[in-house]
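Example record

The entry below shows one chain as it appears in the dataset: sequence first, then structure tokens.
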Amino acid sequence: MSAKASREDDRQVIPRWRSFRRTVVAGELGALHRPEPEDISSEIATLRQSVTDAPGPFTRADLLNALISANIDDDETRSLADELALDPGTPEPLRGFSMWAAFRHRSPQDETLEGSTSQARKTEISTLRYRLKERPRNAVLWVDLSLAFATLGNSKKSIRAMETALGLSLDSRFVLRAAARLFVHLEDPERANRVLARSARLKYDPWLLSAELSTAQLAYGRFQHARAARELLTSAQFSPFALSELASELASGEIMSGRDRRARNLFAQSLISPTENAVAQAASMSEKGDLRFDPKLLDVKGGYEARAISHSRAGSWHEATAEAVNWHRDQPFAIEPITFGSYTASLGEADYVTGLALARDGLQTHPKDALLNNNAAFALAHMGKPEEAQAHLRIAVQHESIAETHVYEATQGLIDFRRGLVAAGRKSYESAIEGLKKEGQTDMVAVATSLWAIEEVRQSTPQALEAVKRAASASKLSTTAETRTLRSRLAAAANVHRG
């Protein structure tokens, strides 16, 4: 049967990884503190005159900084920022500041999502390499190069580029969070945590501390700087947006420890002015601990993952798949969105063509991934291509984890039925369901039992009626959207074959 990468309630608030430009637009590189406006109009007037007298990059940067400090966001401010960002004569230390100023108020919806095609990435790599010849010490360019390589599945070159960036800018928030996400992506959360933990800014920057907490939870199963995190959360000097992911990660730790009241308070704090990542975390945890999740939060800009989760739980499979595709475009290196989309398309929507296309897209950069190969096999079997399905399942079984064994047994049962090997199919389904029962996987038992019954009905076997009754019994113990969908699908199949 088709499967997702993991349960949503296992999720951690791991940093997003986007290009520098899109990270700025998302607001993750902005000021930490609440603005304290003051009257500096006379200083601004003096700086304007300085720019008129000597319009160099440093005088223009001084004026831009003063305008931003005074919360002036007009044509003059935006024009100055654009000029500095695009001027090849702007020194590197000022270029990052000017790019942040130029893009900080743009809507993420106005920005093109990361291109995920192979050719787009190869073109981007060529461009970045050319720019690095001119500015080899630009850590931002090295991180963007690392992202492009990661999206193509070239882990070695991605690591090499990221290590160069870390050597050039060890305390940059952008570099550190990107590095942490890369190492989590490469299934090395310990290294991700080490990169963050050695930063001198760790306990003073909530963006870094939230990433450190989430990677520590993945690596060691516990927080290492929870006290420092709570101190930052109670400080009045940080903006709610800057604290959003820190509060969200702490809330997740509390809810997994059974401290629901603390979790609710922390989630409420995380959602005052949330990042889309914090909204996705709240959505994933919303069915635990009696959390109150306001559906209006799903309107957050860039909230593709949150909406994918919400639609899948409601059984709105087409919408879930569409948001998973957007999530994939936003995080094109990541395997989670493409696995999620291939699952919702195939199992939920019965759109096996789309499910297969998404799985194959992911397999271009993750050819040995067990779940993607399983989902490709599931779709191919339903499309009448059992031999191709078996080839993919063979790869999945070679790289399976113990937790996924019974999923692949159920997929083998499907393939056997589609080959006409009914007895072998039954044996595989029986083994899968027995294993899932022993593990207490009630919802997955209902899914596997329904899928088995559908195959018995399709073949019009003498055991079909018994299989339908067995599926109905298992479905009573599950309330998921998957169970409801398969119950309807089984009823439709039974009506067709009865007629």
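Notes for this example: Residues 172 and 285 are 30 Å apart (CA to CA). Confidence is low (pLDDT under 50) at residues 107-113.
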